[in-house]
Each structure stands twice: as structure tokens, then as C-alpha cells.
Amino acid sequence: MSSSHGCGRVPYRIEGSTEQLVQTVLQVVKGHISDGEWADLKARMPTSLSAVLR
After folding, report:
1. E-strand spans in 1-54?
2. If you ran DSSP here, which 8-state letter would residue 10 be given?
3. 25 exposed, middle or buried (CB, 10 Å; 0-12, 13-18, 19+)?
4. Tens of pLDDT along 13-38?
5. What is d(CA 43, CA 11) in angstroms, rounded to the nearest whole number?
6. How far apart are CA 18 and CA 4, in angstroms?
């Protein structure tokens, strides 16, 4: 695995927009952490990222 932190290409096609992908990933993360951890995570996100969350 590369240490480029997400700079590589995905070996398959992703359907939908980048915002949809971000929302999906963050919803999965939210399902695996407590409400307090989620609040802490959202508080540390850039405003542009937290704004796409529903």
C-alpha cells in the first residue's frame, strides 16, 4: 500500500458525484463510532466538507 494518502487511482469506476461518495463514506464511519466521536469529528472537519453532510 502506498503512503500517498488517497492520491492514487481507484481500480474501478465509481458511480455518482464526489459529494455522494463522501456522504456514503462518512455515513459508514458514523455507523461505527459513538455520537460524541461523530460530533468531535464533524467539529474538526473543514466547513466545506461538513456542509455536504445531511
Report:
1. none
2. P
3. exposed
4. 778 888 888 888 888 999 999 999 99
5. 32
6. 19
Task: Give ∠ CA 33-5-2 in degrees, rounded to 5.
Answer: 120
Residues 52/22, Cβ–Cβ less than 8 Å: yes
Q: What are phi and psi of 45, to 5 degrees?
A: -75, 150
Model's pTM, two decimal places? 0.59
Helices (H) and strands (E) in the chain, counts: 3, 0
Q: Which amino acid is at 10?
A: V
| pLDDT number for residue 3 | 43
Q: Is residue 4 scored above 50 in pLDDT? A: no
User: Residue 11 is placed in which grid cell?
Assistant: 481500480
